[in-house]
Amino acid sequence: MPGGPGAFARRAQALTQNTKRHVEALHYRQSFSDDEFDPKTPEDVQRVNDLGYQLAKKMHPRSDCLVVTHTDGRGGKAHNHVLVINHDNETGKALSDYRTFHDRKAGNQKGVQSSNDELMREHGLSVVKRLEHAPKDWELRREDFAEGGLDREMGDRMSAALADPRATDKAGLEAVIAEQNQQLGDDGDRVPRMRLHTAVSKRGKNVGKETWTLYIEDRRGESGRAERRKRTSALSADFTPEGAQAFFDYHQQQKEQEHERSARQAEAAERAERIAAAAWQSGHDGDLDLDPRRRRGAEREDRPADRAAEEAGGLREGHGRGAGEAHRPGVDLAAVRRHASADRERREQAERDREHAQRVREESRREAAERRLAEFDRRSAEESRGYGLGD
C-alpha cells in the first residue's frame, strides 16, 4: 500500500473516528510447518508473505490489509503477521466473519482455521490436525465487561471450568464449578458461590430449546439481590449448550486418545514380557544360550565334584560344548553376519527410496506452487488496480 505501515495505520484510525467501533484492525498470526520454508532463502520468505496476503484476501476480499513477514522469532522460522482494517470498502460496515479461530454455529460465523486449511491444501502445504486446541471465544468478549465486575468473574470462571479436562459433559462441568466454589480469592476469603441453572423454553421461537443461566453470589450489591444472574449466551456463544459441546467433544477426544495410548503401551509391555519369557525358555531348552556362563555355573553346583574333570574334557573335545551337548546345533555366526548385512542393505535402500520420493514430491509441489503464484500475481495486479492501491 502506498505510504507503507504508517499510512495503513492512519487509514485504520481514520475509519473509526465517525463510528462506534473500538476495533481498528484485526491481527492474525500465520505459521507453517518447520520443513516447508527456509527463512534464509529470499524466495521462500517472499512466498510466505504471498501466502499471508492470499489468506487476508480470502477472508476479507474488500478490505485493506498489511502482511509483515518475520524470520527472527523464536526458532527463527518464517511466519506472518496479517493485519486487516476493520472496514468493508464496499459496504462501509465492520467485519463480522473470521473473528474466531474455529467456525461458530451461532450466527454462522466463519473461523480462521477452515479458511487457512483450504489455502494450505490448495498449495500442497501441511494442514494442522483439527482440535489441537480447545476453542476459546471468551477472550474476545471479556473486555466488554467491567473489570472486577460479577459478569466478568462469571465469564472467567465459566471459561476455566470448560477448559478443565474433566468437563466432558454437563455433569462434569457442574462438578468443576462446584469445586471452584471451595477456592479462596485474592483477599483470602472464599470466592462467591456460583451455580449453573438449566431450563427449557416453553414459548417463543426457542420453544423446547435448552438454555443455561449462571447465578453468582452478590456480596457487593451490584444487582440488588442475593445473586447476580446472567444468561450464558449474553456472555459468550461458547457458554451455551451448543457452544460448550465443542469443549466436551474436545476433552472426550483427548480422553479417548490418552486411553488408546495407555492401551498401546500396556500391549507393548505385555508383548515385551512374552518375548523375554520365550527367550528365557528358549535358553533353557538349548535353542539359544542367552547367558551360558551363568547357566553352566549353576549346573556345576548341582553336579558331583568327580564329574568336573570328565565335563572339562568333554568341553575341550566338543569345542565349547559338554559331551551331552555335542549333538546340539551351534550358532552359525557367518549366517548371522550375512543376514545382518542383508537386512542393513534393505533398510538403507528403503531410506534411499523414501528420500527420492520426497524429492520428487517437493519438486512437484514447487512447480505447482510456481504456476499458482504466477496466476496469483496476475490476479493481484488486476485487483490492486481495481482498489486503487497501485502495483
Topology of helices and strands:
Layout: H1 4-14, E1 25-30, H2 42-59, E2 65-70, E3 79-85, H3 112-122, H4 138-141, H5 150-163, H6 170-180, E4 194-200, E5 210-217, E6 227-231, H7 232-235, H8 241-285, H9 292-302, H10 308-317, H11 333-387
Antiparallel strand pairs: 1-3, 2-3, 4-5, 5-6
Helix pairs in contact: 2-3, 5-6
Strand content: 5-15%
Overall geometric form: flat
Count the E strands.
Answer: 6
Radius of gyration: 34 Å
Distance between the termini: 9 Å
Instruction: Characterize the quaternary organization of these chains.
Output: single chain
Counted by DSSP, the helix tally is 11
Mean pLDDT: 77
Helix-strand pattern: HEHEEHHHHEEEHHHHH
Poorly predicted spans: 131-135, 287-296, 298-303, 308-331, 386-391
Helix/strand/pairing class, anyone? mainly alpha
**Largest sheet, spatial ordering of strands:** 1-3-2
Percent range for helical residues?
Answer: 40-55%
The biggest beta sheet is recorded as: 3 strands, antiparallel
Description:
The protein is mainly alpha-helical and 391 residues long. The protein has eleven helices and six strands. The strands form two sheets. Strands 1-3-2 form a three-stranded antiparallel sheet. A hairpin with an 8-residue loop joins strand 2 (65-70) and strand 3 (79-85). The radius of gyration is 34 Å and the shape is flat.
List keywords for this structure.
391 residues; mainly alpha; 3-stranded antiparallel sheet; 11 helices; 50% helix; 10% strand; flat; disordered C terminus
